Amino acid sequence: MNKLHQLTIHEAHLQLEKRQITSIELTEAVLARLNDLQDKVHPCVTITADLALRQARQADKRIAAGRCRPLTGIPLAIKDNICTKGIRTTCSSRMLENFVPPYDATVMTKLHREGAVILGKTNMDEFAMGSSTENSAFFTTSNPWDTTRVPGGSSGGSAAAVAADGALGALGSDTGGSIRQPAGFCNITGLKPTYGRVSRYGLVAFASSLDQIGPMTKDVTDCAILLKAIAGHDRRDSTSAPRPVPDYTRSLVTDLKGLRLGVPREYFVDGAQKEVTAAMQAAITRLQELGASIDWEVSLPHTRYALAVYYILAPSEASANLARYDGVKYGFSYKDTRSVWDALEKTRQYGFGPEVKRRIMLGTYALSAGYYDAYYLKAQKVRTLIRQEFEKAFQRCDALITPTSPTVPFKIGEKTDDPVQMYLSDVCTLPVNIAGIPALSVPAGFVAGLPVGMQIMGPLFSEETLLRIGFAYEQATDWHKRRPPL
Ligand code: GLN
Fold first, then answer.
1. CB-based contacts of 354: which residues, under 8 Å, 6+ apart?
2. What distance in angstroms lies between residue 422's CA and the mean position of ligand 1's atoms?
3. 293-295 and 260-262 as β-strands: parallel, antiparallel, unpaired?
């Protein structure tokens, strides 16, 4: 029998609905675990215990009245770049250290309507720029499987919390891999939805043409439940898609008959750790046993430009998006100054960390007159080629299988002196955001006690297929059931 904090969302829901447990009991158990983790793993920037208990009490009333929705009374953690009304939303930056949003992101409004319980806000790389949470201005989160290693990033706090049972599920955001890479590093399930599937209203913007909010959960069923709750058109986000939201749990069947899965050879590159490649081979054999046919002939040659394209487009958009932090409108403001310009300079000098400044400078350079055509415009053109290449691949295959990351979680400090090494840990995930397509990461094995993630990519709005593949694989393995020895 699982302890309360060890339950998945769907397990807890059944017990809540049958009134075998209350949300208060569940929330207290999870909060106790989360507080414990705060000492060892540091997943959260803010824990909202009072709010959580208040929401749990309301949820119990709602359940007693017979109105138990799939997330009613379920304790969740939220990445700290998603605006929460009345709750500090820092983006793990000095710039927003004391910023309390006056409104909720659309995903939060939806969770509140469902009656979910909010445990707190999770640590991340500053403004979501990074792959390890080491760029947080406050502290680094550890990987619960080995606390000397990184949990991945930028949604590292969300991943660590869910992996170690400090939350039943969490929201993250993914601009180049920030949901999938930490999910893979921490042995949980994470989905980057199709661009436009989930509203970005109230998500603090990093690179607006790439950013998506998505679920991070203990298994694929929970992922389907959480995605359904947050997806859908929103008149406040003009890039959100006016498409109906399917019941994603209906697509969870355990065979893969009739599905054709491609293995793009560029993703099994030299830089990849050979044990990771071996784990992928084993996973692909499993998928075959489940009835899928495997296409080994898929090639995505423009993948090799994805890193360069991303590191022009994302910083360019970031340099524009982060111009708003001027010390006047909100956030940190340097006061003791001689002039307006001086105030602006000092605000940005002290408010932003080194990686954020590096991105702003890269982006400003790429967008400046004389360089715009050579960098930004060129990158946009290659973006189109990458997108077309995926479209072509999806004419042959229903989905593509790759590792989520080329390596297992690395040591804290190992890559902090070399930004390019850090950027390379996202080679497998970046192309997905460039093309706007969805991708799921599921647990797929261990190398010397450290988790390996499998990435499943699909065409636009193919979330049902991705979840079906992930579910069938998960049911045929038990990786997702393993918990870190904390
Ligand atoms: N690691 C990538 C970056 O640093 C992606 C981050 C993200 O997805 N937010 O930009």
1. none
2. 10
3. parallel
Residues comprising the chain, all counted: 486
Domain boundary among 235, 257, 279: 257
**Domain check: are 153 and 26 in the same one?**
yes
- Looking at the annotation, which residues are catalytic? 79, 154, 178
Atom of ligand 1 nearest to the CA of 311: 10
| Ligand 1 atom having least distance to the Cα of 207 | 9
For residue 388, the SS3 value is helix
Q: Give SS3 for 326.
A: coil
Question: In the chain, which stretches have pLDDT less than 50?
Answer: none
- Rounded-to-integer distance, Cα 333 and Cα 11, Å: 46
471 within a domain of the structure (yes/no): no
Q: Which of 91, 131, 206, 316 maximizes ligand 1 atoms within 8 Å of its Cβ, making it the mutation to test the pocket?
A: 131
Q: Which atom of ligand 1 is nearest to the CA of 130?
A: 4
Among 202, 230, 257, give the residue marking a domain's end: 257
Asked whether 177 lines ligand 1 (CB < 6 A), one says yes
Q: Note the pLDDT tens digit of each residue in 20-74.
A: 999 999 999 999 999 999 999 999 999 999 999 999 999 999 999 999 999 999 9
Strand partners, 231: 198
**Which pLDDT value is given to residue 189?**
99
Cβ atoms of 132 and 109 within 8 Å: the answer is no
Token pair of 132 as six digits: 């390890």
Q: Which pLDDT value is given to residue 271?
A: 73
User: Quick one: pLDDT at residue 295?
Assistant: 97
Find the 128 Cα to ligand 1 centroid distance in Å: 6
223, part of any domain: yes
Ligand 1 site, residue 178, Cβ cutoff 6 A = yes
128 close to ligand 1 (CB < 6 Angstrom)? yes
- Mutational test site, ligand 1, from 81, 134, 154, max ligand atoms within 8 Å of CB: 154
The pLDDT value recorded for residue 335 is 85
pLDDT for 1 equals: 58
Q: How many angstroms separate the alpha carbon of residue 442 from the centre of ligand 1?
A: 19
Please count the CA atoms within 13 angstroms of the CA of 284 that sit on its side-chain side: 22
Q: Tell me if 135 CB under 6 Å of ligand 1.
A: no
Which pLDDT score is estimated for 186? 98
**pLDDT tens column, 81-93:** 999 999 999 999 9
Protein residue closest via CA to atom 5 of ligand 1: 176
Question: What domain range is 18 assigned to?
Answer: 4-257
Residue located via tokens 């049972």: 165
Beta carbons within 8 Å of 33's beta carbon, 6+ residues apart = 5, 164, 165, 166
Q: What pLDDT does residue 261 have?
A: 98
